[in-house]
Structure formats: structure tokens, C-alpha cells
Specification:
With 456 residues, this protein is of the alpha+beta class. It folds into 3 domains: 260 residues, Spore Coat Polysaccharide Biosynthesis Protein SpsA, Chain A (Alpha-Beta Complex); 62 residues, no CATH class; 111 residues, Jelly Rolls (Sandwich). It is built from 13 helices and 30 strands. Strand 18 and strand 19 form a beta hairpin. Helix 3 crosses helix 8. It is globular, with a radius of gyration of 25 Å. 35% of the residues are buried.
Length: 456
């Protein structure tokens, strides 16, 4: 069995920490057994390692997330990178084409699709190992993982088994599926649970040949490179609506352990083992309230209960936990550059951005580079940069000239000048950009190793 981890969403419901490039699965708000902070993607990857499944796993993601994945996961698996974000069906179609035309896997290979933000017990991964038997024994087209409900939620979809499902499965590994209901009211949810319904947790499996045939039948290329070139033409739809609802024979594999959909601040704070992250204090009169603060400023919370307060460079949120699911709707019209990003070489935070009277832009960043890592050899046509080293040591190459850098060193990089920077120790510096267009589009990179840059 091959596992496809879906890591494509932006997680706007967790604004202001999540944004277009820093998605919710990369936020470090959980702790492992050793008390070390970890993100959702780090947690599920650790669980896959413990279950012996990492060697057969892939991550389907977007271009903007690759640096985050490289910085948070060691020995990363193959990345199947979408040219642009288009929902779960195109992402899964691209992954299937990759397994078929690049990996050359058998059409009988079982493929399991798993959201990267699942918060589950280790037994969850033991349950998905049953997908192979369920698909083979039932001859079904799709197998879903169904969570045994613990209360009548109106926030989840439900998988309703066939009335005679017990006689259809002698092994107890799976149930035949009768129909689905998306987010029913609580009274309906109570009736569904009495019928033996499961929560739909968005985990499913199929034989590779089933999806490849589906693509062929719908005029969608099965070749990976061809599909990449036509990616914008694929229906921008969820896999549930595009495939699952059109499939006649589906089975569900039961899972009775813990599962949470970490899609809102209400659910995220429910699994945190502390009520305060960052600089701040919550008074004793504030009950069931959480504070997450990324700013270097103290935040004081007094007399506010059942709420979440989040402060970051991208904005400040004060919300009743029950209303936290509306964040995506309320922030849909926000349009600004990400103020914090993680890269494979380190990370940066935007300190200031403004425009001068003559139309020129000025952007100030605080940048950290990990020991031994380096920025790519590059140049900019529409801006100059000034670097001021504040901590650590490094080497700068400026149009072929090597300069040793230490705290207090100032380097000016005119527009059109090739430059690169390597951290000898962990390096921090302030970068001031000035020019007519301060964007990622104004970067010409030269793909060279550091040793090649030194000898250029």
C-alpha cells in the first residue's frame, strides 16, 4: 500500500497564524512525548514512522509549501507538487498519475489518501492497514475510514452503512456503505448514530487502476508530465464530489479510537496542553480561554472566558471559541503579503513595509539562516538590498568577491549584482530592500552549489 499525504490547504480558519504560504499543518502548537513542540505534519509523520509506513509515503503539496516541509521533516519523502492550488480531486489525480507513469506501479496497488492535519491515536494507522483486505474481499471501488461517533455532531459528514451490513462482512473488517449525509442537524445526527453511522474523516483508499480508469474515461491525462501541462483544465472540485458521490460500490473500515478535525481554533485549543503560548498572561477570572502570541510584546487577558486570542505579525484575533469557525468567512477579503515564512535554509519575519512619495517601496526583514545553510546565488533587477549582521558568522559572495561577515558587518547589494550568503554559525541579519517592485518575481537564481559559487 502507498500513502498519499494531502498537504495543500491554506488553513484560513486559523488566521492570523496561517496564511497563503504558512498553512495550519506547519504551526507548532502541539507537544510530543518528550515535551518538544511539533506541528500537525510533524506529528502525523512521526506516527507514520512508528507504524513503519514512511518508506511507502508521498506528500502531495503546492510549490509554496515545499520549504516548510523541508524545514520540518527529516528525510522527506517524494513530493508531488501541484503547479497551482485546485482542491483535492486535482491533487489526488496528479498523485495517481505520478504513481502510474513515474513510479510505474501496478494498477492493483492500493493507494490510501490521508489528510496531513489528522489528529489521531496510533491505532488509527493500524486501521488504515485494513484497506487492502477490505478492497480485495469486497471487490469495492473505494474504501473509506469511518470514525465511531462520540456525540451527535452537526459539523461532520456521516457515512451510513447498509441495513444488512453485518451479513455482508463476515470478518468485521468493513461495512458496505448505503449513503452519505453532510453536516446534518443534531437531531438527525442522533438518529444516524443509532443506525450505526460513522463520521467521515476524509480518509479513503482505492486500487490505482480504478482512478487511472476514471481519469481516462473523463478525458484527463494519466501521464504525469502531460497532466502537469493541462492542470488548469482539471475540474476544480473536491474528491468527494467528483469521485466518491459518483461511485456505486463503497465500503467503510471502522475506527473506534480518538480523532479530531483540527480545522478551527476551538478544536486546536482543545488538544493544547497549555493555555498560553508566547509572551502574556491570562488572569484567573478568564475560564477556558487560550492565548497564542508570536509577537515580542506582552498580551494581558482579563475577565474574558471561552475565547481565543491570537497575535502575530499578520494580525490579531479575539474570538469566542464557538464563533471561531467563521474566521475564514470574515477574512476572505484580506489581501497582504505573508509576514512570516519558513524556508529550508531558515526563516524570516517582515518588520516593516511602506511606500515612499516617489513610488519606491521599502521592505525590512529579520532573517535567520541555519548553521551550514546558504541562500541561493541570485540577483535582482528592480531593487537593491542592505544587509546588517546582528548575530553569528557567515560568508558573503558579491560578484565573485568573498567577504567574512560578523555582527556589525554591513553589505550593500546594488540592483543587478550577483550575491549569495552562507551561515558558518547560525546567522541573523536585518535586510532592507528598496526598489520599484519588491516581490519574489524579481529574483533570478543560479542553481549552483556553494563550492561552485566560490570558484566562479
Amino acid at each position: 500500500m502507498k500513502i498519499i499525504l494531502l498537504s495543500g490547504g491554506s488553513g484560513q480558519r486559523l488566521w492570523p497564524l496561517s496564511n497563503g504560504s504558512r498553512s495550519k499543518q506547519f504551526l507548532k502548537m502541539m507537544f510530543n512525548d518528550n515535551g518538544v513542540e511539533e506541528s500537525m505534519i510533524q506529528r502525523i509523520w512521526r506516527q507514520l514512522q512508528q507504524a513503519g509506513l514512511t518508506e511507502s509515503s508521498y506528500i502531495a503539496t503546492g510549490k509554496s509549501q515545499t520549504d516548510f516541509i523541508q524545514s520540518q521533516i527529516e528525510n522527506i519523502p517524494p513530493l508531488i507538487i501541484e503547479p497551482d492550488r485546485r482542491d483535492t480531486f486535482p491533487a489526488i489525480a496528479l498523485a495517481a498519475a505520478y504513481l502510474h507513469s513515474i513510479e510505474k506501479l501496478s494498477l492493483d496497488e492500493i493507494v490510501c489518501v490521508l489528510p496531513v492535519d489528522a489528529y489521531v491515536e496510533d491505532s488509527f494507522l493500524e486501521a488504515i492497514k485494513k484497506f487492502g483486505h477490505a478492497l480485495t474481499d469486497s471487490n469495492a471501488s473505494l474504501a473509506l475510514l469511518g470514525v465511531k461517533p462520540t456525540f451527535p455532531s452537526d459539523q461532520y459528514g456521516y457515512i451510513v452503512p447498509a441495513p444488512n451490513h453485518e451479513s455482508l462482512c463476515n470478518t468485521g473488517t468493513y461495512d458496505e456503505v448505503d449513503f452519505f449525509i453532510e453536516k446534518p442537524d443534531r437531531d438527525t445526527a442522533k438518529k444516524l448514530i443509532k443506525q450505526g453511522a460513522y463520521w467521515n474523516c476524509g480518509v479513503f483508499a482505492f486500487k490505482l487502476g480504478y482512478l487511472i480508469q476514471y481519469l481516462a474515461d473523463n478525458g484527463i491525462p494519466c501521464n504525469f508530465e502531460e497532466l502537469i501541462s493541462q492542470y488548469s483544465d482539471i475540474p476544480k472540485n473536491s474528491f468527494d464530489y467528483e469521485v466518491v458521490e459518483k461511485t456505486n460500490h463503497i465500503v467503510v473500515v471502522p475506527y473506534k479510537g480518538k480523532w479530531r478535525d483540527l480545522g478551527t481554533w476551538n478544536t486546536i485549543t482543545g488538544i493544547m496542553n497549555t493555555d498560553t503560548v508566547g509572551k502574556g498572561v491570562i488572569d484567573n477570572n478568564s475560564i477556558n480561554t487560550h492565548l497564542i502570541n508570536e509577537l515580542d510584546l506582552p498580551v494581558v487577558v482579563a475577565g474574558i472566558s471561552n475565547s481565543v486570542i491570537v497575535a502575530s505579525s499578520d494580525g490579531i484575533l479575539v474570538a469566542d471559541k464557538a464563533a471561531s469557525g467563521r474566521i475564514k468567512e470574515l477574512t476572505k477579503d484580506f489581501c497582504q503579503r505573508p509576514m512570516y515564512e519558513e524556508k529550508h535554509w531558515g526563516h524570516y519575519r517582515v518588520l516593516d513595509f511602506h511606500k515612499l512619495r516617489n513610488g519606491a517601496e521599502v521592505l525590512t526583514k529579520k532573517i535567520s539562516i541555519f548553521q551550514g545553510k546558504n541562500l541561493s546565488y541570485q540577483l535582482h533587477l528592480k531593487r537593491q538590498e542592505i544587509w546588517t549582521i546582528t548575530e553569528g558568522e557567515g560568508e558573503c559572495i558579491l560578484d565573485g568577491q568573498l567577504t567574512h561577515m560578523k555582527p556589525g558587518t554591513v553589505i550593500t547589494i546594488p540592483a543587478g549584482t550577483k550575491h549569495a550568503l552562507k551561515a558558518i554559525t547560525e546567522l541573523q541579519f536585518i535586510e532592507v530592500q528598496m526598489g520599484s517592485e519588491l516581490s519574489e518575481a524579481d529574483i533570478i537564481r543560479f542553481p549552483m552549489e556553494w563550492s561552485e559559487i566560490e570558484t566562479e
